[in-house]
Amino acid sequence: xxxxxxxxxxxxxxxxxxxxxxxxxxxxxxxxxxxxxxxxxxxxxxxxxxxxxxxxxxxxxxxxxxxxxxxxxxxxxxxxxxxxxxxxxxxxxxxxxxxxxxxxxxxxxxxxxxxxxxxxxxxxxxxxxxxxxxxxxxxxxxxxxxxxxxxxxxxxxxxxxxxxxxxxxxxxxxxxxxxxxxxxxxxxxxxxxxxxxxxxxxxxxxxxxxxxxxxxxxxxxxxxxxxxxxxxxxxxxxxxxxxxxxxxxxxxxxxxxxxxxxxxxxxxxxxxxxxxxxxxxxxxxxxxxxxxxxxxxxxxxxxxxxxxxxxxxxxxxxxxxxxxxxxxxxxxxxxxxxxxxxxxxxxxxxxxxxxxxxxxxxxxxxxxxxxxxxxxxxxxxxxxxxxxxxxxxxxxxxxxxxxxxxxxxxxxxxxxxxxxxxxxxxxxxxxxxxxxxxxxxxxxxxxxxxxxxxxxxxxxxxxxxxxxxxxxxxxxxxxxxxxxxxxxxxxxxxxxxxxxxxxxxxxxxxxxxxxxxxxxxxxxxxxxxxxxxxxxxxxxxxxxxxxxxxxxxxxxxxxxxxxxxxxxxxxxxxxxxxxxxxxxxxxxxxxxxxxxxxxxxxxxxxxxxxxxxxxxxxxxxxxxxxxxxxxxxxxxxxxxxxxxxxxxxxxxxxxxxxxxxxxxxxxxx
Length: 669
Description:
CATH topology: Maltoporin, Chain A
Largest sheet: 22 strands, antiparallel, barrel
Shape: globular
Structural class: mainly beta
CATH architecture: Beta Barrel
Oligomer: single chain
Radius of gyration: 24 Å
């Protein structure tokens, strides 16, 4: 009976189609038109000279336990990008911001996942299936391929992000499938005041970035709406392709353009979130059949809707209910002529109980229905068409054993359709021998259920497997840290064992299969932040990781073993903000050397962000607040090519075109 109800999801498709039309252009028009509306001016609440150093650095987080925790007490290895860091260092895209986070690295795949973030070197699969993305705590999953989030990473309105919480390590106990190597939670601002913000950022060679935000507050009603359009300058390259054993050099124009919109409404105990993102760029398929190599333009779109209701049942018990719908689409302009459409409908009921002595219990259940199809629009052939219903029941308890020791225990029981019940546990403890020092010892497991294509694909070049087992990972974390009033320093060591990894077995007819061996990824990372005073801020991190399978093969993912990141920022009380941030990725193993096109290697991505608040600088009281902004990406002008990960080794594809300069104006009403 349950399968029948969840399988009949035509109403979801109709709703998704309506949402795409409703949210994208009307919301853009609303935000632009709002620029002509008179609004009450207010001072910027994020002014660091009105905040204490502790408020700037030690923010409370919610992702690790779905309830508020201090970062030092959270049951996980956590990195946070604060609002102050976002303001100091800027960022053209969400991907740019995430590349600055300790332990995270930008990556790419030959075709369907051209913008990815890898956590702790785990890019074992050829898509972003091991990282779960959340918007305000709600999952945004793509289920046809299994983890594509390129359009959100490239076009989400970064201007409305309040902070980003990154949990490194397994998160399936609370978040289910795909919370494998890490969880990224993008937390947006709320409509807590009446405000309008408009930004125009033209760039070189016709590049353009525009954004608009409107906030409305009326008693219990809070509304925030944002729209963003980004068109980066076309990247023209001479791409060397293989054909019948020879090579051909083909001039190419790589587009990079997209739109992002977001609407958030809170009214009493009810909430609504709605987002729509599109992105367009190029794809490259290597010569894996010794016949040809092809490339073209690929287009992504994703629509996300969440309706939430929370109720305080008793003084110590709160209950949340959420209905989350995510629709994803993907298509190519030429061979292999793919058009995908998939959707996930997730209902989740979560309960929070505060116990005596600072302990808390979180428990709940989720019902997840997924469906999707892949077709050839030129011939009408249906390559994949499937649906599945999954169920999960979970609980996690954080028990304050003493004033210095917290114990963590949790489990999720999950039922993937056509498979037996399975369980993933989580245990650990946090010891705080002194007020500012902590030691975390954690063990957790996570799973990643097969995607629609991995189960149901029937393509002439690749076949799905309905008998696949979920991927599993077990991770041990040891973290030691210091959190002071104006500084933090954390050293973390980790070891993950990955089993049943799903891959494309090409020993016979290409088919998805589970690997029989175990993959181990281990490493350590050191990260720190320091406010010399309210004006000067320093941050930096370094990570080393390595991977190996049972046969001793090493460096199994195209991610550098060593990476280092660092930033310095100065905020002048007179209105000037300057931030420099460098992301260094070390050299790759020799197996990723390219025989065609530029060779992947080590690189630095240095960015510069400058903002001049004209109201403060000119010291005027009334009128519209405005700022001049300069954003320079890849200041050193390094063209970056990465391995054409996913099929044939020895190829590379373009990843970053080099220096991009944007300069513009922000108006706040």
